[in-house]
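testing teh design pipeline on a random one, pls ignore if ur not involved
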């Protein structure tokens, strides 16, 4: 488990996981109104090329004949930068823990 300011990332191994699933991740909150809660559903996957990437919790829904996803974690201003920052933070915490093992 890694600690950064008022939040932590905890990585959770899953038995019988899909082949490319590296690990699941949870963001735990230590301070403020979210203290004592966690946001679950983050996953780290390995691409066929070997790169590790993060997916966020989302819900699938149908829109006509199309399947779309409603992401539970979104930027307040609607830009991609805050989401990229969270993904980079989760990957950095994973790599720190992976290097320590």
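output:
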């Amino acid at each position: 488990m890694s600690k950064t300011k008022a939040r932590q990332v905890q990585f959770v191994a899953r038995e019988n996981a899909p082949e490319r699933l590296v690990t699941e991740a949870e963001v735990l909150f230590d301070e403020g109104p979210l203290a004592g809660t966690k946001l679950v559903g983050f996953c780290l996957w390995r691409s066929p090329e070997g790169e590790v990437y993060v997916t966020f919790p989302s819900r699938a829904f149908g829109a006509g004949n199309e399947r779309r996803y409603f992401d539970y974690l979104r930027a307040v201003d609607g830009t991609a930068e805050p989401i990229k920052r969270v993904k980079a933070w989760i990957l950095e915490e994973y790599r720190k823990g992976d290097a320590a093992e």
